[in-house]
Structure formats: structure tokens, C-alpha cells
Amino acid sequence: MGVNDAVTFQPKFIVKGKGLIKNEADGWGIAPRTSMAQKKGGTILFIIIDGRQPGYSIGASLYDIQQILLEKEAVTAANLDGGSSSVLVKDNQVVNHHSSSYGMRYLPTAFLVFDHPKQAPVKNIWQGIDMDHFNSAHKLF
Question: Which of the residues 16, 28, 110, 111 has an alpha carbon 20 to 30 A from that of 86?
Fold first, then answer.
């Protein structure tokens, strides 16, 4: 499939097209959520739900997210980091209302989606770094 990198998340809540969370009480409470899923044909789905903002959005439980993704025919889905890590950026603009009252957080990881990924000007920030002598206190870029 040409995979160069892979990641894993927990908990998985849709496996082989079946929801594993049986009811709202098993859904880890209501909070801002970020989840990733895949449909049978390989299409990847992301869902970002704002939360902790009364009058705008209180958030969702994992059961809520599971039900939305099952409606979208996801066959596998997992929870990603939520809370103030739930940020959606499009064309260099944050398009959701993140829940941090302290402003934007530095997020060390992201999923990048492009119309034409082979033409995307994304450099590998790790290229050329000798990981045997890597010091995370140094600025990389």
C-alpha cells in the first residue's frame, strides 16, 4: 500500500464495522473530541468536536462519535488526543473553536491532508538528524 509511516490510537471503538461502546455511559464522558476512522474502500475520516464551551458546544462522548462514524460507514475507528488538542486547520487558518482558555497549544503532531500530496511542499524535519545524538532541548527549525 506504500505506507511510509503508521500510528496507533486507543481506544479503538469501531472494529470490523461494529461499535464496541454499547451505550452513552461507556463513552468516557463529554469532552472535545478528535477521532479518526476508515471506510471499507480505504477513505479516511476525521471528526473534530469542540467542547467545554457552554452556549457553543459542550462536546461529545465516544459513544456519540461512534454513532456518527457508523452512520458514515466506518469499519474501524479510534480515539485521538482530544481536549485542547482538538484543532482543525484549513488553509493555514484554525476553523474550529479550541477549548483552551490559555490560547492555542503547541501540538507536536498533525495529520496533513492535501489534494495533491506528491506536490505538497512538506519537508521532513527529521531528515539528516542523527537520532543516536538527538537532544530534544535543541530547536529543530
Answer: 16
Full-model pTM: 0.78
For residue 40, what are the contacts with CB-CB under 8 A and spacing of at least 6?
17, 73, 75
Q: Measuring CA to CA, which residue among 5, 66, 71 is closest to residue 36?
A: 66
Q: What is the pLDDT of residues 5-43, one digit of tens each?
A: 777 788 899 999 999 999 998 878 999 999 999 999 999
Handedness of CA 24, 26, 27, 30 (dihedral sign): positive
Exposure pattern of 17-49 as b/e (b: 16+ CB <10 Å)? Answer: eebebeeeeebbebbbbbbbbbeeeeeeeebbb
